[in-house]
Design brief:
Blueprint: E1 17-20, H1 26-36, H2 45-53, E2 58-64, E3 67-77, E4 82-90, H3 99-111, E5 115-121, H4 125-133, E6 137-142, E7 152-158
Length: 162
């Protein structure tokens, strides 16, 4: 996996930074996940822990003035050819300001694979717009993927070399 150019800083305007997340970020990651996702989509505590300690995982956090306002996790699959973004979230107060796109791009760089995939709830229109704007295209629908029976849409992006 390649290392994204970290930290991302916005210069004099003190834009949020994108940094590597670690085990010490578990409480903040849990709070953020509960704020970002429907209750049924919040990972069990042990899965959040696993993401933060498992070797080879990409785990990024977006921080503003010491507060975690975004989180992304992902992993490589198929001998490093496909990267999966397993979770991405931006705190509700920070959504709609371009931070999700910045965190997504940093996650793509960190994964370092020619293909990136992710799954999103069919009803999550803002996230779908973000992914489409970033160059993702829907390749599959997984029926009843989410708890509660909602379909999951699998999106894919072919990442250009360079």
């Amino acid at each position: 996996m390649s290392n994204p150019s970290l930290p991302f800083t916005g210069g004099a305007n003190a834009e949020p930074q994108i940094l590597m997340a670690s085990l010490s970020d578990l409480p903040a990651e849990r709070r953020l996940e509960k704020a970002c996702f429907p209750r049924e989509d919040v990972w069990p505590w042990v899965e959040s822990l696993w993401v933060l300690i498992k070797p080879g995982m990409v785990r990024l956090k977006m921080v503003n003035s010491g507060e975690m306002i975004g989180f992304l996790s992902g992993y490589q699959q198929v001998q490093g050819q496909i990267g999966w973004i397993s979770s991405i979230g931006i705190a509700p107060a920070w959504q709609g300001k371009g931070f999700g796109a910045r965190l997504l791009a940093a996650g793509e760089r960190a994964l370092g694979t020619p293909i990136i995939r992710l799954t999103v709830r069919a009803s999550n229109t803002p996230a779908i717009h973000l992914y489409e704007h970033a160059g993702y295209r829907q390749i599959q629908t997984v029926r009843k993927y989410y708890v509660g029976g909602e379909d999951g849409l699998v999106f894919e992006k072919l990442v250009s070399a360079g």
